[in-house]
């Protein structure tokens, strides 16, 4: 594997904002011994016309429940843990397919509309850090690989260097799946200086054994040609059987100094509440 041979576990991320069953930032799930915790608000989705993307994004989460003031309150409440809040761009359904009508127009519209979402947070509490970055999370992609990389990469770069919103662009992550791997691999290789985390959705694949999981993990890190400290493992609250093997795989990697962190899709307060979140954070915190 490339880069660091061992890493210290530091980060846990949680997707939130889907559906109506969560109406607040569930900070009760946060382990006080974890070094860094991210809530990822999903999704900012774009308007499509005749099946083609316009690049005009709007937030789908409940703005009142996850307001700028509540983000600031969350961060101040948990000052012993580095808490960040990130917005996720894209979507997981066929209605949110990446398929721009015109690449240049898409880049202009996406940069402007995502900047508007960021400013909607930033200007409400201008003296505080509110949002910390964006997460690229298209699961359905109909464009060419190069168009995806060029369009998304250009938006990331323009927002990163924009003096108005750059303070809210400290973190950029991508969310590959098995089916979208070739798109995100190209995006990462073309823009690795601007992408901080690779959040790979292991929960979309089945593993018979921990050994199967470890083989894929090693293969992916080699393909991305990145250090271990940029690669996170994804677990789902909807896939209990799959999650068991993935969590066991995380423990295996942690015992060998090979895992910097993990993320969960998505926050579900089902009984017992936040079980995978607590289990994974406990593993990360003790290593």
UniProtKB/TrEMBL annotation:
It comes from the Eukaryota. Residues 10-287 form the GH18 domain. Transmembrane segments: none annotated. GO terms for biological process: carbohydrate metabolic process. InterPro entries: Chitinase-like (IPR000677), GH (IPR017853), Glyco_hydro18_cat (IPR001223). PANTHER family: 2, PUTATIVE, EXPRESSED-RELATED, CHITINASE 2-LIKE. This is GH18 domain-containing protein. It comes from Pisum sativum.
């Amino acid at each position: 594997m490339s880069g660091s041979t061992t890493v210290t576990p530091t980060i846990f991320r949680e997707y939130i904002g889907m559906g109506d069953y969560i109406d607040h930032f569930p900070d009760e799930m946060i382990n006080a011994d974890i070094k860094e915790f991210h809530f990822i608000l999903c999704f900012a989705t774009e308007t499509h016309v005749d099946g083609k993307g316009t690049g005009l994004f709007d937030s789908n989460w409940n703005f009142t429940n996850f307001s700028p003031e509540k983000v600031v309150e969350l961060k101040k409440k948990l000052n012993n843990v580095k808490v960040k809040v990130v917005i996720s761009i894209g979507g997981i359904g066929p209605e949110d397919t990446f398929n721009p009508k015109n690449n240049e127009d898409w880049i202009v519209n996406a940069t402007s509309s995502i900047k508007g979402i960021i400013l909607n947070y930033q200007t409400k509490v201008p003296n505080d850090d509110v949002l910390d970055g964006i997460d690229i999370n298209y699961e359905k992609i109909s464009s060419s690989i190069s168009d995806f990389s060029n369009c998304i990469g250009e938006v990331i770069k323009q927002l990163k260097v924009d003096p108005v919103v750059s303070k809210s662009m400290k973190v950029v992550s991508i969310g590959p799946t098995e089916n979208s791997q070739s798109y995100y691999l190209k995006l990462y290789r073309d823009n690795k200086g601007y992408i901080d985390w690779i959040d790979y959705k292991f929960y979309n694949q089945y593993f018979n054994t921990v050994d199967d999981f470890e083989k894929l993990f090693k293969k992916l890190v080699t393909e991305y040609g990145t250090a271990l400290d940029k690669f996170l493992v994804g677990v789902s609250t909807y896939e209990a059987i799959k999650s068991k093997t993935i969590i066991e795989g995380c423990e295996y990697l942690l015992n060998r100094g090979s895992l910097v962190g993990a993320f969960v899709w998505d926050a579900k307060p089902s009984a017992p509440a936040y079980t995978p979140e607590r289990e994974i954070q406990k593993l990360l915190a003790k290593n």
